[in-house]
């Protein structure tokens, strides 16, 4: 059993794709790493719509705007860039299913750089988004 964290400790983030983080960190500098970082960014934004930890719409919009400006500094193939932009846009919308579809389309474009563990984690995230209840669409209004 893990020891309890002190009350003043920051809460650990529970990102659902640690193997994807590891793959991006291990990739050599260049196109493969930047592609993995694009997939990582798309998955991170889509996780804001997951049923277990949904983010308010204002937060999702701010995160998407920041991701767009980050994407401008990354060198990606045109098709991959377009797919990542679609993922960013779908993360702003209130539909987890739309985010799942755009993330799946991105995965279909990027078959080589993802190892088995990273692909499995992203596939689980996609399944969670696809099976999200429609009640997720009715999150409390942002203040």
Description of the molecule:
- This protein is mostly helical and 143 residues long.
- It has one domain.
- Helices cover 59% and strands 0% of the residues.
- It contains 6 helices and no strands.
- It has helices at 18-26, 31-46, 57-71, 78-92, 96-109, 116-130.
- Helix 2 (31-46) packs antiparallel against helix 5 and helix 5 packs antiparallel against helix 6.
- The longest helix has 16 residues, at 31-46.
Outline the secondary-structure elements.
Layout: H1 18-26, H2 31-46, H3 57-71, H4 78-92, H5 96-109, H6 116-130
Helix pairs in contact: 1-2, 1-6, 2-4, 2-5, 3-4, 4-5, 5-6
Summarize the structure in short.
By secondary structure, the protein is an all-alpha fold. It has one domain.
